[in-house]
Amino acid sequence: MCGLSDATGIRGNRTDPVARFHPGNGAPRERINGLGNTIIRGIGESFGITIDYLYDNDGIEADHEVVARGGTIARSPEVDALLQTHRALARPHSGP
Questions:
Q1: Domain ranges across the chain
Q2: In this model, does residue 93 exceed pLDDT 90?
Q3: Which run of H or E residues covers position 50?
Q4: Residue 88 and residue 96: Cα distance in Å, rounded?
Q5: What was the pLDDT predicted at 39?
C-alpha cells in the first residue's frame, strides 16, 4: 500500500513509469481499483491493483509544480481515506 502513497524506490525515485508520468504531469491519484489488472503480469507487478488519475485543468499546473519541487503527489479524498485506514490497521497493537 505504501506504493500507492508515494511509489518511491530505495533512492527516492518513483519506480513505476506510470507512477512517475501522471503525477509528474500534475494529475492526482483519483481512485484505487483492486482488480484493475488481472492478467498474470498485472498480478505479479501490482497484485492486480491499478490507479486512476484525474486531469483537472483548474489545478493541474499547481499540482505539477508541487511534484516538480519534490512535494507530495495530490490524491483524492477517497484515496487519502483508504491510505489512512491502511495505516491505522498496519500499526502494531500492544496487549492481548
A1: 2-90
A2: no
A3: strand 50-53
A4: 18
A5: 93
- Alpha carbon distance 29, 4 (integer Å): 9
Of 89, 61, 60, 86, nearest to 6 by C-alpha is: 86
Dist CA 48 CA 16 (whole Å): 14
Q: Residue length, the chain?
A: 96
Global pTM value: 0.63
User: What would the pLDDT profile of 52-87 be if each residue is shown by its tens digit?
Assistant: 888 888 888 888 888 888 877 788 889 888 888 888
Q: For 57, how many CA atoms within 13 A lie in the half-sphere containing its CB?
A: 0
Q: Which range has the worst mean pLDDT, 8-12, 35-39, 51-55, 56-60?
A: 8-12
Alpha carbon 34 to its chain's center: 13
Exposed / middle / buried, residue 67 (Cβ in 10 Å: 0-12, 13-18, 19+) = buried
| 56, three cell numbers | 483537472
